[in-house]
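Researcher: We plan to redesign the surface later, but first we want a full-length starting point. Tokens attached.
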């Protein structure tokens, strides 16, 4: 999880660094398509990806997860143009909040305690505090809202994986669905919105290699494997390292400034998510 969080904290920074040479939407589409091809070549013989594609239940669940994944990254790409990578990373990783709320009503073992609900409330107060400065700047606020919507989409995709037949198939199959559908959806978006600029250079190539091999293949496979064996609420506490790493990376590599209210809001959000983690051993609300 430390490795996964470090990589995910850097991916928004890499997207923004390469933005002058390749649009984020196109970059996300290319990386997803290449990663889907790599996953298929490596894992199809062992995990039978083609066989799972023939299952209607798996295919329907995979389609919905893929669409959520596509929308998540479309929101990230849109937000990068309007706000900082630190804001994007923080609000994107509110996903565990939405996942915990959804699973509370769907799976008995995932029901939250009063302490966890207090943590959820505290985290959403933190979100309000973190965007306070953004209200004076329309572009920044819209970028923050894009990032928050991306977090919601990620949370919904985690719920679908947890409650559907995707939870019983190899992680490589779930990942293939997400990557393949995301590649197609974002390619169509880039084409119809003319958001398809691409200058072949060292920066664009290095960013694509990083996004494809490290982010889309290695880190995602690790994440889906963890989702199969650990409670989402447990992983949610460890994933809190990602916003901290992302904010630090944006400040160090892009020179982004961090507003006091954003720091305060970040602390409240992280504190709230910690409560949702450590409150899970207490008696659930009836």
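Model: Full-length starting sequence:
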């Amino acid at each position: 999880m430390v490795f996964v969080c470090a990589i995910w904290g850097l991916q928004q920074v890499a997207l923004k660094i390469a933005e002058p040479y390749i649009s984020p939407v196109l970059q996300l589409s290319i990386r997803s398509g290449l990663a889907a091809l790599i996953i298929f070549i490596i894992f199809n013989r062992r995990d039978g990806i083609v066989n799972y594609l023939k299952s209607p239940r798996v295919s329907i669940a995979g389609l919905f997860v893929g669409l959520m994944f596509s929308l998540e990254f479309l929101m990230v790409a849109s937000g990068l143009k309007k706000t900082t990578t630190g804001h994007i990373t923080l609000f994107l990783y509110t996903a565990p909040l939405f996942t915990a709320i959804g699973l509370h009503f769907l799976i008995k073992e995932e029901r939250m305690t009063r302490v966890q609900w207090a943590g959820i409330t505290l985290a959403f107060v933190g979100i309000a505090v973190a965007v306070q400065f953004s209200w004076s700047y329309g572009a920044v606020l819209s970028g923050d809202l894009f990032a928050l919507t991306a977090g919601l989409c990620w949370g919904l995709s985690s719920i679908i994986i947890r409650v559907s037949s995707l939870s019983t198939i190899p992680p490589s199959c779930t990942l293939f669905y997400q990557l393949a559908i995301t590649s197609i959806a974002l390619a169509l978006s880039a084409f119809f919105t003319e958001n398809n600029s691409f200058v072949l250079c060292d920066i664009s190539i290095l960013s694509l290699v990083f996004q494809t091999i490290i982010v889309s293949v290695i880190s995602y496979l690790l994440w889906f494997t963890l989702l199969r064996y650990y409670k989402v609420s447990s992983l949610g506490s460890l994933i809190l390292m990602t916003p901290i790493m992302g904010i630090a990376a944006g400040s160090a590599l892009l020179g982004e400034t961090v507003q006091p209210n954003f720091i305060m809001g970040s602390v409240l959000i992280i504190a709230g998510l910690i409560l949702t983690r450590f409150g899970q051993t207490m008696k659930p609300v009836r």
